[in-house]
Amino acid sequence: MIPIKLALRNFMCYHDNVPSLYFDSFHVACLCGDNGNGKSALLDAITWALWGKARAKSDDDLIHLGEGEMEVEFEFAVGQNSYRVLRKRTKGKLTKGGLRGTGQSILELQIATPQGYSPITGNTIGETQRKIIEIQRMDYETFINSALLLQGRADEFSMKRPGERKEVLANILGLSLYDDLEKLAKDQSKEKEIQQRTRSDDLARIEQQLEQKGKYEAELQETQAALSMISSEVEKQESALATLRQTREALKYRDEQYKEIGRQIEQANQQLHYLDIRAEEHRSKIEKYKKVLSSYEEDLASTRARLDELTKLERDLGERRERAEELSNRIHYLSSTNVQLKKEMEELKSKLDLLGQGEAECPLCGTELGVEGRERIMVNYEAQGQEKGDAYRTNLSEKQQKEGELTNLRQEVSKLETTITTERSQCERRAEVLERERTEAERSLPQEQEALADAQKAVEDLRAALRENTEKGKAILAEMESLPRIEDEFNQAEKSYRELKEQERSLQDKLVEIQTNLRRCAQLEMERQENIKALQSVAEEKSVYDELATAFSKKGIQAMIIESALPEIEEEANRLLGRMTDNRMHLKIESQRDTKKGDTIETLEIKISDELGTRNYELFSGGEAFRVNFALRIALSKLLARRAGAPLPTLIIDEGFGTQDSTGREKLVEAINSIQDDFQKILVITHIEELKDAFPVRIEVTKTEEGSTFSLN
Q1: What is the residue range of 475's domain?
Q2: Integer distance in angstroms from the first to the last C-alpha of the chain?
Q3: Pairing of strands 148-149, 650-654
Q4: Could you tell me which residues come within 8 angstroms of residue 48 by beta carbon, excluding any fewer than 6 positions away?
Q5: Per-residue pLDDT tens digits for 411-430
Q6: How far is the C-alpha of 38 from the C-alpha of 17, rounded, in Å?
Q7: Confidence label for 156 from pLDDT (cuts 50, 70 and 90)
Q8: Please, how many CA atoms are within 13 Å of residue 429, restricted to the half-sphere of its CB?
Q9: Quick one: which H or E segment has residue 27?
Q10: Is residue 650 part of a domain?
């Protein structure tokens, strides 16, 4: 993985005004700045973007203080392809109780194409994360143990006691997988041991049950003989029981016949009663129809007489209607006349009012009037008004009298109309009813007379059948006197049959049980053979798992891998150490050591040779030990990358150089420069001022009130 570009917003100490960091502008660079300015935070941004992991315990702790979200965009190259990762994090909202809800994370992955970056994001964050790891062929643990030399971890391997270094080396090489495999093999071995005990217990139980096989075979012969004998007795008893059953059923059938005859007699009596009722109904209807026919003419004449009376009432009604019309016309005339009289009286009053105002002109022709002329006209108008008023009051009195008469007359007309309509309708309906009753009587009388004759004939036939059934019942009753004796004999025979049958069933059940036991013995024999084979197979499998547990143990494959890795580590470490010390120092890693007792124990001691001789690592000073640590750490990084199948084109050194004197620092810089051709990108992180100018490119990190930032020089 080769970094191309890093852009971040609200990440740790970096706020939202941070420039993008372009890695393609340098090969080797120094990331410098005072402690706490945010140098290591840039590395955290890279690991968080790629793997979602950094130094903080949770993602929310990485968000810049006072902000609710952050994001990091990182572009990198693997082989011939370039990729872009965008990871975002938003804090959850605060609840009413002051707790913060679950936040939200977003992870996107894109690949560079001629048209620009194209998304290849998975359906879930986990799926996208797996794609990122597959592309780099490197997970977070491999990265921090190979491409990234973190602060305080360069001497993680060297500073351990010799007996613990193998464990550290095993962890760096990822040999914990073999510990898991060893545990899995031991667990499987224990499981197979449990299966062995289970199979052995099953085999002992089966052999104990098979000891009963001879007993079951003897019981089988004895039971079969007894069953043959009892089955013969059952057949004889079945034959006798069948004969008695046939006789009993025949008598029971005769009993049913007797009961059926009784039911027929009862039904015949009921029918006789019913026919008597029906005959009486027919007689009643015949009398009713005869009465209808005899009274028809009389009732019809009475109805017609009433209709004639109603016709006379209708003529009287017409006369009353004509009188009402005359009264209505007279009232209308009087009303119209009074309207005209009232209008004329109002006009006379208006003229009198004009003359009373002293007008000297005639209100009609406009001629000049004297006092006498005006009085004469006023007298004339008053006389006319009196005459018209008398006429108006006379008309009004007559109108009121006529209206009262008209109201009474209209009430009489209405009452008479209702009476005529109601009674005419009743007479017409009565005439229709009389006609229907006569028609019905003429049609139904012959039918009822015929039905009466049929009912009388049926009564005679039923009485004859009753006499015949009574005689049959007496004959059947005589035959049924032997039924109680036959019932007793049948019950006794049936009881004996049930006892024999129960004995037969008991023997059959016993036979089935014995046969089941023998089949079970045959099945147990098969299971016995299967258990013997299974025991052999389980024993073989347990042996295999025991061998695998030994092979996967620290003294097995793990020791072999470490032994094979030590020469590579030594060679690469000595190559770097030689560059840093002018070949003055040389190291050797020993995996075994002889004890005073003469035994050989597993260890991992670092022997360092210089001009003073060979000494253990623990006896060297800080500056010398740091150079050894650095050489070993680079060697381990390259080894781990090779074993992971991932190239190691990028090296990031986040270590302190404070333990080195000026000469040691120069040697370390020379060592870094000497390995620069082994890497496409080297980034050294330091806060030492003297080292800034030792590298061609500086990324200077500073902290302001708005947050950390950096510049490329």
Answers
A1: 214-481
A2: 24
A3: parallel
A4: 11, 54, 59, 62, 72, 87
A5: 888 887 788 788 777 777 87
A6: 14
A7: low
A8: 6
A9: none
A10: no
